Amino acid sequence: MGDDTMTSAVRDKVIALIAEQAMLPVGDVRADASMADLGIDSLGLVESIFAIEEAFDISVPFNANEPSASDFDISTVASVVAGVEKLIAEQKG
Length: 93
Hints:
The structure is a single chain. This protein has about 90 residues and is mainly alpha-helical. It has a single domain (about 1-90), classed as Non-ribosomal Peptide Synthetase Peptidyl Carrier Protein, Chain A (Orthogonal Bundle). About 55% of the residues lie in helices and about 0% in strands. It has 3 helices and no strands. The chain is globular. The mean pLDDT is about 90.
């Protein structure tokens, strides 16, 4: 049961960070939205990743120069949340 709370907290925090970067209300950040849908450009994406790394004390395997070559899926908000949850699990391991 504790996992759900953790997952929810992670999701809420990631969405809050993305919303802040997109300058949108949290309620406007849908799980199926892409970063482009939210108006986040490549620089904004890099800043979002940095913010996520700092917030969760994790290292995100994301190469801004070659996003498609990264192991980290940034296609949608939901995929970013899932990626962060996976990294937290692995790095707290």
